[in-house]
Amino acid sequence: MDSDEKQFFCGGFGDGVVCGGFCNRLLRVNFFKTIFGAIGVDSNTNIRCEMKNLLNMVKDKPNGWLQLLDNNGSFAIKSAYATIQDLRMGGQEYLLALLTKVVFMNQKGHEKKIEKPDDESESYGRSWRLTVEANNARPWRIVPDNCYNHLQNYMSGGQYQLDLNLVVQHILSYAHEIPLAADGMDAWILDVDDTCISNIDYYKGRRFGCDPFDSAIFKAWIMKGKCPANPAVLELFNALIKKGFKVFLLTGRDQATLAQITTNNLRNQGFIGYQRLILRSAQYKGQSAVRYKSAIRKEIEGEGYRIRGNVGDQWSDLQGECLGNRTFKLPNPMYFIS
Q: For domain 122-329, is the CATH number 3.10.250.10?
C-alpha cells in the first residue's frame, strides 16, 4: 500500500498500522458506525465481526483491498475507490458514506446469482419489454406468448400513453430551446407508423405482436386509411409547425400503392402543413430501413436543411447517417424493424 492509500485508510481517522491492504486499528468506531449503519449493521459486536471478515479476505495479500473490490464485481466500486479520497478531502462525508456502502455490501449479496424471472409472471413481461426498448434483443421477430398479458395491459391500460406523453414533453422542451435561423432551413423528421399515426387497433388482432406479422393483412388495414393519430405526437407536430420548423414525414410505406391513402389518412387526423411526405420509392426497395432512411436524410441535408430533431418508434429510424442534432425513441414493444 502506498502513502496515499495509508493516508486514506489510516491518516484521517485514527492511528493504525497497515496490515494486508487494510489497517488493523480498524479506523475509528464512530466512523464505522456511520458506514455500517448505512447497510444495517448497527451494533459494535456486529461491526467488529464485519471488519474481521473483511480483514480475513485481504490478509497477507499484497493488493488485498483492490482484489477484494475486483472479486465483489461491482461496477461502482472502482470509481468509488478512485474518487473517494477527493470526496473526503472536500468534506463530503455523506457521499463518502454512500460510496462506502457500495464497497462494504455483505458478501452474500454479491454472491447472489441473477435468475431469470418466472416465464409466466408479469415481471418477465416487464423485463422483456425493457430489454427490447433498450435494443438489447435485436433482431427479434415475434413477441413471446408469455408476454401477451403484460403487453395487453401495457398498450391498452394507459401506461403506454403515459410513457409516450412523457417522451413528447421532453421533445417539446428541447424544441422550444432551439433558436431558429432566419433562412427557414431548420428541419425536423417524424416517422409515420406508430409515431404520427397508430396501428394499435391492428395489433390488438395480432395479440400485440405475439402472432407473426402478415404483410397482406397489415396492408389491408392500412388501405382502410383509418389509423388514428397519436394525440401527443400530433401536439408535437403542431408545435413544431407553429415554431417554424420544416417537418418531413418519413415512412417505409410503399410509394406506388400507399401514397394517396397515407396522405389522406394523415390529413384526416390533423397532420397539415408539413414540408414533405416521403415514402419508399422503387429505388429503395429491398434495402433495410436504416439504409433507406439514412439515404433520405442525406438527401434532405443535401438540399441545405439542418435536421434539428428526429423522432421514431423504431431504432432503425434513429440509426445510420445524418441523424440530426438529437434523436428521440418512442415506445413500441410490439414489433421490430431492422
A: no
pTM (global) more than 0.70: no
Helix axes 148-156, 159-176, angle to 10 degrees: 50
Task: Classify residue 275 as exposed, middle or buried by CB count within 10 Å of its CB (0-12, 13-18, 19+).
Answer: middle
**Of 169, 211, 172, whose CA–CA distance to 188 is shortest?**
172
Name residues of the chain where pLDDT drops below 50: 1-32, 35-36, 38-39, 58, 62, 65-112
Closest CA to 197 of 312, 60, 317, 42: 312
Count the neighbouring beta carbons within 10 Å of the beta carbon of residue 125. Answer: 24
The sign one gets for the Cα dihedral 155, 156, 161, 162 is negative
Q: pLDDT value at position 138?
A: 87
Residues 6+ apart with CB under 8 A from 61: 20, 21, 67
Closest CA relative to residue 246, chosen from 167, 304, 194: 304
- The CA–CA distances, whole Å, from 9 to 14, 21, 95, 308 equal 9, 9, 16, 50
* Spans of all domains in the chain: 3-111, 122-329
HSE-CB for 59 with a 13 A CA cutoff: 8
Read off the pLDDT of residues 86-109 as tens digits, 9 standing for 90 and up.
444 444 444 444 444 444 444 444
Contact 18, 6 (CB under 8 A): yes
Q: What cell was used for 142? A: 415475434
Q: How far apart are CA 227 and CA 194, in angstroms?
A: 9
SS3 state at 187:
strand
Q: With contact defined as beta carbons under 8 Å apart, do 16 and 27 qualify?
A: yes
